[in-house]
Amino acid sequence: MTATTIARAWMVRRADGMVLGFTDHDAVLSFEGIRFRPDHGMSARALVQATGLSVDNSEAEGALSDDAITEMDVLAGRWDGADVKMWEVDWTDLSARRLVFAGSLGEIARSQGAFRTELRGLSEPLNAARGRVFHPRCSARLGDGSCKLALANETFRTEAVLAGIEEERILHFAGFPAYEAGWFERGSLLVLTGGAEALGGTVKNDTALPGGGRKIELWQGLGISPLPGDQIRLTAGCDKRALTCRDKFRNLVNFRGFPHLPSEDWIMAPQAGGRHG
Predict the structure, then answer these.
(1) What does pTM read for this prediction?
(2) In 190, 245, 265, 276, which residue has its Cα 20 to 30 A from 84's Cα atom?
(3) Residues 6 or more apart from 93 whose CB is under 8 A from it?
(4) pLDDT in tens, the chain (277 residues)
(5) Of 39, 125, 34, 37, which is closest to residue 85 (Cα–Cα)?
(6) Cα–Cα dist 60/42, whole Å
């Protein structure tokens, strides 16, 4: 390779199998079955790589465009954790190339029609905590393999038509199914139809209104607001307590916490006549 003929090429593969290729060269490059386009869909800063197991430190940035990485896809989380590879390639001889980075996309931030995301190296998973946490509250996620609760049951999930929205995060429903107030707090909301389809959020407050109405407040807006008439799915929330698991979900047999674990105050407090075991 010579310095005057070196270009960089990026491949991004989403979890659903969609692949995009970009290059800073002024013409299309094709290798390994990928077509690398010379547009501004994505670019990356200079990589900072280290020996050992430290995580490669870099960022990728680009424009949100209809034909490459769209705002809707970013909001829906379709690019979260996507695989990334970067090559240095001699554009006069595409066989003369070397892989300089392999990893995944981290957290994505949006601003003024553009995005910025962290590039995470292959050693990033080594930073994740391993082992079980001993805590009075449940360590499982509602409905996962440890919880084993069937969320498709209509007791824990319902669909309703949006009647109105305010401040981009407070949704109003009319004729809502009969659930007790607070049933969906800490739960999830998913938009099923309309311009905000596939966007979702976490429920902050769930208020039952007179006449069968419902007000659902999210922790933050969805980025693209759903419109009246859109179909919305709501899933019940869990506060991870043993009593909630028993009384609300009837699932105490699968509770993954330790409700009788003594608190730190109890362990540290002095007691007359003996010690804590």
Answers:
(1) 0.69
(2) 190
(3) none
(4) 556 889 888 898 988 888 988 888 889 999 999 999 887 666 665 555 554 545 455 666 665 565 677 777 787 778 888 898 989 999 999 999 999 888 888 877 777 777 778 778 777 777 777 777 788 999 999 999 999 999 988 899 999 999 999 998 999 999 899 899 999 999 999 999 998 898 899 999 999 999 889 999 999 988 888 999 999 999 999 999 999 999 999 999 999 999 988 877 766 666 644 455 5
(5) 34
(6) 7
